[in-house]
Every structure is written in C-alpha cells, then in structure tokens.
Fold these 2 entries.
Entry 1:
Amino acid sequence: MNDFIDATVEQFARDHTEAESDLHRRLREETYRVTDRPQMQVDAIEGRFLKMLVRLTGARTILEVGMFTGYSALMMAEGLPEDGRLITCEIDPKAEAIARRYFAGSPYGHKITIRMGPALETIRTLSGPLDLVFIDADKPNYSNYYEATLPLLKPGGLIIVDNVLWSGKVLDPQDADAHAIVAFNRMIQSDPRVENVCLTVRDGMMLAWKRSL
Ligand SMILES: C[S@@+](CC[C@H](N)C(=O)[O-])C[C@H]1O[C@@H](n2cnc3c(N)ncnc32)[C@H](O)[C@@H]1O
C-alpha cells in the first residue's frame, strides 16, 4: 500500500531491496489468503527498514504495539542480537494463531514474547528500559501508546509509529481515525522530549528519538 509514490517507482524500490525470506513470503501469502484486512501488514520495504533500524540502533529490547500475523515482529526479531528480546501486543486470537505458527518455524521466533490483551494494559505491566518501540495498532489510541511507552524508553531510544499519513487522509480528515492521526502528528511535532522525522515510507512512518532531558 503506497498512495504517494508511482506504482512502477515503488516496484523499482522493491526490486532493489533485499528480497523477502521464504518464510516471510509464505506468511504474507497466508495473511492475504485468510485474513479480512491483510493490508494492515507492513510491506516488504517497510519490514526491511524496521529490521535495518533495529540493527542501526543496536536495540536489544523492543516493544511492538499491534502484532497482527507477525510479519513486522519477525522482521525486527531478525535484526536483534541473539540475546535480544521483543514483546508484541495483540488482541485478535486468529492473528495470534497464525503468528505463533510462523514464529515457531523461524530461527528468530524464540526472541519474541506475545502478550495477548489490550496493549495499554500490557504496557502498564512493563518496567523498561526499552530501546525501541513500534506502534502499529488502533489509531485512536496512538497518543495513549506514545505517552505510555515514552517513559519506558531509554534516552536515545526510538519510537517508530506507522500509518502517520493514513493514505493522505491527514490532509482532509473526515473520520475518527484520520482525526486521531492528525492530532497525534501535531502532538509529536511540538513535543520537546523527542526529535522527530516524518517519512513517506509506505503509509508514512514517524520516527521519534528520545532526548536526554
Ligand atoms: C496494523 S495491524 C499490525 C500489523 C503488524 N505490525 C504487521 O506488520 O503485520 C494492527 C493490529 O493491532 C491489533 N490491535 C487493535 N487494537 C489493539 C489493542 N487495543 N491492543 C493490542 N492490539 C490491538 C489488531 O488486532 C491488529 O492485528
């Protein structure tokens, strides 16, 4: 899904990005075959970018808010060192069942802990410090996820937030999700606790780097 870049240019970028592993390709195909909203899954470029960010930041402790069938979690787990850990939050048991199967079939799956239940409740049980947070769940709660996880993030840690351009609907928000994302972007833009950059990767990714205050 990318409404901002010409489809042929997007394909060129994909053709010049490290290919998906066979496991990731099968996970993508199954997700598109058996789930109602497969487009929620990050694409191959964003997945690779997440893995690259994990590597570049040297993250060892990651929290993901919104696992779905596990594509992004598996990508980030690949970028973690052997003793690295990723906690991922989900509420949908059907998505969980698929993710568990693919995690079990991956040499990186043992780094992932699934926490079922509303993410805000799970976050309340965590103590940190976290090195990296990936927020990709229900849009009306984006600001709440951000506020709940920022105190757990180490100074110099990174929060990555997906879908911040919402297919361009942020320019003329008409529904609750679009309004929530506009408010979230505005809040981050004026937050002195972080340095931020809004990227036009896929559906828009916000990177917020936590300052030492
Ligand atoms: C956009 S999808 C995540 C996609 C995933 N990162 C990937 O790349 O495959 C959002 C997921 O968040 C889950 N979700 C929605 N509300 C939630 C909540 N309150 N707590 C935890 N997960 C939630 C949904 O069930 C859905 O699977």
Note: The CA atoms of residues 14 and 77 lie 21 Å apart.
Entry 2:
Amino acid sequence: MNHHVKPMTLIKEIDYGTPSPEITDATKMVTLEIDGQEITVAEGTSIMNAAMQLGIQIPKLCATDSLDAWGSCRLCLCEIEGRRGTPASCTTPVAPGIKVTTQNPRLANIRRGVMELYISDHPLDCLTCGANGDCELQDMAGAVGLREVRYGYDGENHVFAKRADGQANDMFKPKDGSNPYFQFDPSKCIVCSRCVRACEEVQGTFALTIDGRGFASHVSAGMDEEFLASECVSCGACVQACPTATLIEKSVLDLGQPEHSVVTTCAYCGVGCSFKAEMRGEEVARMVPYKDGGANEGHSCVKGRFAFGYATHKERVLTPMIREKITDAWQVVSWDEAIDYAAKRLKETQAKYGKDSIGGITSSRTTNEEVYAVQRMVRAAFNTNNIDTCARVCHSPTGYGLKQTFGESAGTQDFKSVDKTDVILLVGANPTDAHPVFGSRMKKRLREGAKLIVVDPRRIELVRSPHVEAAYHLQLQPSTNVAIMNAIGHVIATENLIDRKFVKRRCEPTDFFRWEEFIKRPENSPEALEPITGVPAEQVREAARLYATGGNAAIYYGLGVTEHSQGSTMVMAMANIAMATGNIGREGVGVNPLRGQNNVQGSCDMGSFPHELPGYRHVSVPETRAVFEKEWNVKLAAEPGLRIPNMFDAASDGSFMGLFIQGEDIAQSDPNTHHVEHALSSMDIVIVQDLFLNETAAFAHVFLPGTSFLEKDGTFTNAERRINRVRKVMREKQGMPEWEVVSRIATAMGHPMRYNNAAEIMDEIARLTPTFEGVSFDRIDELGSIQWPCNEEHPTGTPVMHTEEFTRGKGRFMLTGFVPTAERSNRNFPLILTTGRILAHYNVGAQTRRTDNVAWHPEDILEIHSSDAELRGIKTGMKVSLASRVGATTLTAKISDRMPPGVVYTTFHHPVTGANVITTDNSDWATNCPEYKVTAVQVTVSNHPSEWQAEWQEREVENKRIGKEKKLEPAE
Ligand code: SF4
Ligand code: SF4
Ligand code: SF4
Ligand code: FES
C-alpha cells in the first residue's frame, strides 16, 4: 500500500444541523419514526439531527451542528402526527414514539414562501459571487424548488446603495475589507446570526452583535466598527459558520472555490488543530478547521486558519548551498553535491577532533519522523549521543518534573477533559493568546460555571473579560512560583485538605510523609512567604481551599512555570498538590503543560535528549541500547552526550567542532546570543536545514532547504500526547523530504539508512518504542488520531493517564524548597522584565511576520505600570530604551496596570528586541532550561540616555574591541 500521500478528498463534512448529545452509559435512548423510517437516538437529539442520521436532509439556514439551535429561519419545519402546527425541526427534540413528516405539499409551500422573502432581499449575482458552489442559500433555493420571486427591489432592501427613486438607501452598508483575511459584505447577509453565535459559543469573544430591529437588523462588529478595529481576534469561526458569501475568505475570492481537500495538522502551536487544506490543484484556497479533529473539534485561531502564506513566501530558499568558509559567498549546488559535502566535512571533523566532536540539534517544528531520522543519524552515523533539542529552552523541566513524580514526561489529560473540570488552576500561561483554541474551550467551561485561579505576575485576559472572571488572581512577583505553590501545599496540608485515601492507595508513603513534614513547616506558610511573593496570605489560603475542595481541579501551565531557575521544582510542586488532593487519574483533573511549539512533545518523545533514546529510555541501560543496536546494526555509545549549552562551551574551547541544526534558529532563540555566535563561528562545519536563510545560517557551511508543513508527510504530537497526521498537500518545493536528506547524509557517512516513505519511519519507531507500539499511519488514518501510550493494553490510545496507578507505580512526592533566583533587580536595573506571546504572532515571528498577520502587532510593545512610568516621565506611545546587563533595545511604551509596580512586560516576536535584552546565564538547576522569564532591566525615555546608559554604550564599544565572549558589565 502506498502510504506516501493519502488524500482525503472530502470538501464538505456532513452537517447534522444541531450538536449531537454525548452518549454515555447513562444516556436514555429514544425511538421515533421519521418519514416512515424508524430510528433510535440519544435523548436530547433534535428531530433535524435524527433525520440527518437517516440521511434525510431537512432544509435549513440558521442551523449548523457547531452551534446550539436557534430556530429563526423557519425553513426546517416539520409535522408531527397528533400535534398542531409546524414546529421547527432544529429546536424540537425527539420524543418516544412520535411520527414526523419532513416533506409534503404544505411544508413545501411554506418553505418556498420563506425562501422567496430571503431571495427578494438578496443580490442575484450568483454567477459572479465568491461563494458560488459553496452557498447554502443557493442550495436551499434549489432544495425547496424556488422558481419565482414575486417581490422586486423597489421597496426597502439591503442590496443597492440607492433606492428605486434615486434616494440614498439607509439600509445599504458597504463591504468591509479591513480584515486582511476575510471580507464582510452586508448586502448578502440573511441575518441568520450564525456568525454572532459562532463568535460567542465557539470562540468566546463576543465581537459581533445583531444591531437594529426587524427589517433594519444587521450584523455589526460592535458599534458598527470595522472588523479590524473591533474586538475580533480573526479566528474565522464566523466565516466558517456563514451560509452565504457575506463573510468569506479573501483567498477564496482570489483563487475560486477549492476542488479537493486534504486533512492535515496546523504547524504552529502545541494545541495541534486538525485542518482541511482545501486546495485548487497545488494551491491552498483556504484552511478550514476539521470537525473531527481530536484537539480542536472544528475550531481554529488566526494562525492556523489564515497565516499559512509563509510556506510559499518568496524568501524561501529552494536549492542546497555550500561554502568553504562562512565569509565566502554561498554556492548553489545539487542535492548530491550538498549531501556528499556535508558527509565529507563531518567525517573530516571527526577524524581530526575525535568521534564526539560533532553532534546535532533537532527541532520541535518538524515531524516526529524527521526528528527521529536526525537523532538516528547522530547516534548511529555520527556514533555519539551529542543530540539535543530546542525543547531544552522551553519545556525540559516538564519532562523532568513529571517523570520524577508520576513517571511519565507528559501532560496527563486530553483537552476535552477540561469540560469536566470545576476548578482550573492556571499558572504562568496565557491560553487565549498562546493556545487560543484551547483558550476558547477553557472560556466555554468557565462560562458554564467552573472557577478559575490565575497565578501570573500579569493580569492576563482570562482574569477579567466581559464574560469570564477569575475567582482569584494571585499576582506574584516574577520568579516566586515555587514559593506560592509551597504556600498552597502548606494550606492543603495544615488545614486537613489532603485526600488521605488517594495518597494511601496511590503514592509512596515515605516520600509523602517527608513532604508533609516539609510543607507544614512555618516557613512555607502563606504568611511567611507573603513578603517574597507579594500575594496577600489570605488570598492564597482561599485559593488553596478552592483548589482542594471545589470538585474536579485541574492544573494548566506554560512557559511561565518552566523558564525559571526553579522550573523543574515548580513542576514537581504542582504535581505534589495534585496528588495530595487526589486530583489525578480521571477526567477533569490532572497536571497539564501547554506546549509552545507544535511538536515539542513529539521531539522529546523521539529521543532528542542526549541521555535518552526514543521513549525516554536512558542510554546507559544496556538492554535498551541492545534493541536499537540490533535494528540499526551498530554499537551505540553508553554515555550521555552534550546538551546544547555544553556544545557551545565545548565549541568555544575547541573540542566540539561540527553541528547539524534542524529547523531551529539557535543564533536567535537561545540565551546569550553573543556566546552562541562565538561558538558557531568557532566550528569547522555547521549544517543548517531550514526554510529561510535565518540568523544561524550566517554561520553555516551547508544550507539544506527544508519543507513547509504543507509539503510534509508524517506526524506531530501535541500537548495532549495526541499523534496527528501531517499530510502532504503539495510536492516538496525543494525536491526532497527532509528525512530523506538526513538519511542520505547518514548513508554517505557509512551508516545505511533507507526508508521509502515516512510511514516506514513510524513503523520503526513503533518497533523500538513501547509507548508507540500500536501506532502506524494506517492506524492513525483509521482512528483519526492516537494519544500515546498506544499498545496492547491501550489499543486506541490513552486520553487520560495514571488512572489506576502511576506510570512509575506509586506517585512520588518531592521536596520543593524555594530558592530565590540569582537574577536580582538593583540600583542600575531596578525593574524585572517578563515576557509572553501575542495571538497573531509566533515565537520570533519567522513565519507570522511573513504573512498578513503583521496587520496586528507591527512591533513589540513594552508594558509598564503607571507608577514606574511616572517616575521616569514615560507616557504611552513614547519610545523608551529597555536595557539589561547585556544589552539594550528601543521599544514603544504602553502604560498598563496589568503588571504590579516593578515589573515590565513585552512580547518578543521581533527578533531584534529579544536578542538584545533577554540574555541570561541562569537556568533550571535540573535541565538547564534558561530563565527567560526573569531579567533585571532599566527603562528610560530613549532620547534621554541616562548616565549608566552612556557608560554601557562605551563598554559595548570596548566589548566589541576585545571580543564578544569576554564581556564587561556596567559596574553595579
Ligand atoms: S473572526 Fe472570530 S473573533 Fe472575529 S468576529 Fe468572527 S468569530 Fe468573532
Ligand atoms: S453574516 Fe452570514 S452568518 Fe452572519 S447573519 Fe449574515 S448571513 Fe448569517
Ligand atoms: S490554536 Fe495552535 S494549533 Fe490551533 S490553529 Fe491556532 S496555532 Fe494552530
Ligand atoms: S434551521 Fe431551524 S429554524 Fe432555521
């Protein structure tokens, strides 16, 4: 069977009209008759949905199965034997024994009348309309047999700018094209309110309303604002819900209606949304979220839905290039030449400096199969364990912390689990910006009444927005996470809130008692820690009580937890309180990292760490090595290799001289840019595999052009351990899959590595990795997606982990003493800078800045508290200088009370900002994850440089002279 491309050609998914109720063991089933056919469905199902299950399509306009029934268009009427009138089938639930008629002359007549009214106020430009071929209004006109429209446009209408008498038509509203990705043409609107409901129910933004009454009613993005200026976050839910061409993607207007589609996975964040790439030939007409997508269930955010243009951006490099020295010009070569050259120089470097003088870095942006290929090349062809991943700089503490306590380096729940949560403890994460589709899901649960505790130095949107409000916002000082979590643990332990039955049954007793004794100590009390955290003790106590006693409680966290010197400690502190309160091992609870990049989970699973083979198994265990040695026919090194920072140190020392870098701009995203640049320029051979000539490529000798996600065949694993298929929708623009390039280099170096397709790589992973045992492309195609572990015991995967026992057997409480960070504010750098993301952009913006997402957030903004601003004479809109111990940059300031005094905040989507300031030598004690979230800084009005700034500038000149690695710092 050819696994290579498995297009799913469907364009339209079945629309059942109304949501289908969840069926559980407790669900009552109802049997009824529709048009003479008997059917049994779950109680609460609408007649419309039940009819659709029989294949009977009742005409409809205002109903769609992603939204609750509304009942406004009156097209879906039916008759029920023995009942009067013609009820709407979308709002009428099934009942036992009823007999429904969906079609007869009377119903047909009423429907035609309804349609006639709609059409009489609708432009009849179907042939030239962008939705031609995808318009439900057109379909319904056909379905009800509309043959004539008796009313003209002489009276009131929304179609023409001028009335028949030549006067201006007040009802008419012009097109709004302000959003870069979709157009709003009110003349085509049938006021079905699907868009308004989608924005409320699915996205949770409430940007749209129906203004006016009766005939004058119309859709408005708030006070008749343009879409771009409104609250709209451009998720696309309204566009998807709109049955007409009123809301339509500009790409469809440009390219025409798609003719086939392929289901694939978004390549941006760790939510891992499934999309139908709707195609015209090899061009993407639009990306539409896939209703059966396990992670997103038909929802999307602006990035996955619209920001795919970077994949075909003109700056992409499509030919391999080589050069002798980094000062030489690039030379375009054939694939064969580039591969041979890379292999030759890697071997030369090993011959000169030893086997362990080279290594590789994998990327969390690429597929599991591509990552696996790189780690195999490094371990088997380079014969060293010098392999690490960029996950080192974001979620390595998650892996460490959860492995220590639960025995598995991954989040415990699926996203759906949040629907059963009563208390959400959200720590150092901003899901509405960074994980928007999960953020919408969380908001929905909060609107249903779940309680929220936010632990964050910044008042994120979820703390207070029109429809969601947190019960507690523990606004702690940056870097005091562990202190606050210990204080919460202290309250749980001293106020008798421990779930002793759970702890006794599921956890190691000795470790628990040790923890209990430790956490109960007075120094861990909220009162003792208040001066450190800045959070009133009583608030901490109340939040702790809510977490422990409010029903199902779940922890969700992000980089605000991990990117700290105590990142691993904090992960363990959260695992401790989850175990202490029995909030683990079932739906609605758990400890869940929100992963930044699309395949962070997968790249870690695939054996990207220097000490672990795929499946998190230590390289020092002979039995584990033996499995791989047999498959690969090579003897493997038993000692862990170098981590990224050690690679750089060794490069500066002259002992690490060759590096293969897969899809990762380390010169830009790693801490201490100068150090990284020095290390890279010290090496004999640097190979970069990427889409664009990034900053790192400036130090490379070989550039191997990469493929975008639209050209890849493989899998990504999201934050819920869900393995999703990435399917190729167009040929590789540079001519070769990335895994093949890697395999060829390995082969040229003497380790034969041959795969016919990506499916074979997954088969190898499954053979060698117990948690992936049951995974194959065929199996994923069959099930849609699979959450690992997937093996004999769990043949369809594992949505919720640790249900009966922990992966490590008994859960292990760990001691989590609070140690303040070494990064302190002082006289010269009196403020603490913390960072985050904004919805429209992604990381350093290499992709999103190459799309129309630049319409939002054209620059990084520095948020500063009014008291800090006043002290410095700073006003919103002013250019300010932001300086840390290692550099300075200029930003526009915005006065904001989202942070406490003493803390400033910015996003780092524009490379120059981050590289110049966020530089830290501090890192997580266990995993070396850099402490990006805490940097001591000073902020000044930029055209009035202060004394120390002048001094810093002088020193910078001196630094340049004496060499970047021996940096001078301004005197304290
Ligand atoms: S794009 Fe999303 S946020 Fe914007 S109006 Fe539509 S549904 Fe609301
Ligand atoms: S814009 Fe579309 S979805 Fe919204 S009310 Fe008009 S026709 Fe319905
Ligand atoms: S939430 Fe994440 S995975 Fe989903 S569409 Fe947005 S960026 Fe893509
Ligand atoms: S589809 Fe039922 S009333 Fe509109």
Note: The domain at 258-309 is CATH 2.20.25.90 (N-terminal domain of TfIIb).
